[in-house]
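Tutorial handout. Part one gives the primary structure; part two gives the three-dimensional structure as tokens.
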Amino acid sequence: MRLEWLEDILAVVETGSFNAAAARRNVTQPAFSRRIRAIEDYVGAELFDRDRKPVGLKPSISAQQEEIKRLVSEMKDLLYELRRQGREANNRIVIASQHAITTSRAPGIIEAFSNTIDVSVRLRSANRDECLALLMTKQADLLLNYQSVAEAAAETEDYLERVNLGTEAFIPVFATHGLGVLNDSYARGELPVIAYPSDAFLGRIFNEEVMPQVPSGEFVRRKVETALTLAALQFAISGVGVAWVPESIARDAIRAGLLFDLRDVLPHTLLTVAAVRLAGGHTAVQDLIWTEINAFGKAPAEPEHFR
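Part two.
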């Protein structure tokens, strides 16, 4: 039986709901229900008592719950070991990178060690929480993400190692061609913005560090909400609203005259770029890369504010 099927079964058992289990497994409820039916068809028996709340395994199957957990744990360990040996044999490293970092900062970070170390890099781009999950499940050897200044200043957990690679401004930008329209809106007390979901990392930064600095008389109109910084950037270029984005991903558009940097009139804040890995159990190549990343983090940073 496939590992993901066993994980699906445990998700239902642990949440007591097909809906909650689908959310945990990052699939829609109809798709998850079809997967559960496929598992039951494969086994040849119904596994769940759908009449009880919360949903649980049928009594005849329930006795195997601990065995299922043991199998999941052992299969994950085996999968990790096979991947680790494969990467070690091929001098291969997997990096999980937050989307905005993938398109801006990651190339320079990878260049810092790939020129001196013979290594093959697989770069996996995802949102911040998904990247952390890849690291914690050992599907990635290294994590590149943004952290708030407070997070970066705090001590890391014992099971993690972190290198701060410098700060980056989280800036408001808007289409240069639409500045007249934006000024008119602002004069009426209205500020059209591109927002992030409140449960996303940049959504929390936007709501907790940027919004409190907006003048109280301004009516903030959330024109579009997106979890993707590159989408927010494109909406700003199109003149839909003001977007707050990491400076590095807006740099080319500002230099090309497509975007205008509004940090002189609207609030901005700082983000810290960090490299994170699990503590202990590293290969020689991974330790060499970590040393190079440490050196990269200590190199002089470019000026925060450019024109």
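Part three, for discussion. The domain at 3-77 is CATH 1.10.10.10 (Arc Repressor Mutant, subunit A). Confidence is low (pLDDT under 50) at residues 303-307.
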